[in-house]
Specification:
Helix content: over 70%
Order of helices and strands: HHHHHHHHHHHH
Number of helices: 12
CATH class: Mainly Alpha
CATH topology: ABC transporter involved in vitamin B12 uptake, BtuC
Number of domains: 1
Number of strands: 0
């Protein structure tokens, strides 16, 4: 792996992976604790509609994708806050319509054949410097938002009704953070792909939740686990000539199952103690 650092594309991949891990570690903690994984998956898949709009109408990728993704995210959030028991149906509809719209528009884009696989698994080994700067800026915004709203996020995450009684603007913070999730997905999806975004937003926080005693520690541990999965996946992809995005996902999945296995072993060991 050391010799791979002589290549600029590998250095960029490592930098991009670390910043993506930081963003997903912080935001993913909020997603997992508040049981918003399905909503996040809906936003990620619906963003395909924005990709199709951007290429079909010839507008900048960031403008088209971000506008559509934010619109879909705000609609989903409004439904979740108003009717949590029926939200999954609406999210599923937006999820499917967004993806279908994007694929049809990409099919009809004149003179341009878009490789959908690149948006599913990303191209982390071909990250341009511009995207790295976008991710650095987003990392700063994400960390600042988490620090500034930490007490409110903590209250909402563990008891939103109590947070309302304390005067916390629960709905406003939900919309702000879901908007931040949407922006993060749009920026990261082009680098690491849709599937890896969902994996980084869910697997590291899920593992970290078992061992963290506070929301802040969970965010930090999630970030470190995501970085570990990224670096390990990149090393395996480079060593065995594999697709980097898919390899990182498999490494994260292995970490997930290893964590579950350790939990089951420890519980069994405790029950065996007389």
């Amino acid at each position: 792996m050391i010799e791979a650092l002589h290549f600029e594309f590998m250095r960029n991949a490592i930098i991009a992976g670390c910043f993506a891990s930081l963003i997903c570690g912080v935001i993913g903690t909020f997603v997992v604790v508040n049981r918003l994984v399905f909503l996040t998956g809906g936003i990620a898949h619906a963003s395909y509609g924005g990709i199709g709009i951007a290429f079909f109408f010839g507008i900048p990728y960031m403008l088209g994708t971000l506008s559509f993704s934010l619109l879909a995210a705000m609609l989903m959030t409004a439904v979740v806050l108003k009717s949590k028991y029926r939200a999954d149906t609406f999210i599923g509809i937006i999820w499917a319509v967004g993806m279908a719209t994007g694929i049809v528009l990409l099919d009809k884009t004149p003179g341009y054949n878009v490789n959908l696989m690149s948006y599913l698994f990303g191209s982390i080994l071909a990250v341009p410097n511009e995207d790295i700067w976008w991710m650095i800026g987003l990392s700063v915004i994400t960390v600042f938002s988490a620090c500034f709203l930490y007490r409110d996020l903590l209250a909402i995450s563990y008891d939103d009704e109590f947070a309302r009684l304390r005067g916390v603007s629960v709905n406003l913070i939900y919309f702000l953070f879901i908007g931040l999730i949407s922006v993060s997905i749009v920026i990261i999806i082009r680098v690491v792909g849709l599937i890896l975004v969902i994996a980084l937003l869910t697997i590291p926080p899920y593992i970290a939740e078992k061992y963290a005693r506070s929301l802040a520690i969970m965010m930090a541990l999630s970030t470190m686990l995501a970085i570990l999965f990224n670096l390990t996946g990149l090393w395996l992809a480079y060593t065995f000539n594999l697709t980097s995005g898919a390899t990182i996902i498999l490494v994260a999945a292995a970490g997930f199952f290893l964590s579950m296995g350790m939990d089951a072993f420890l519980k069994k060991k405790q029950t065996d103690i007389p």
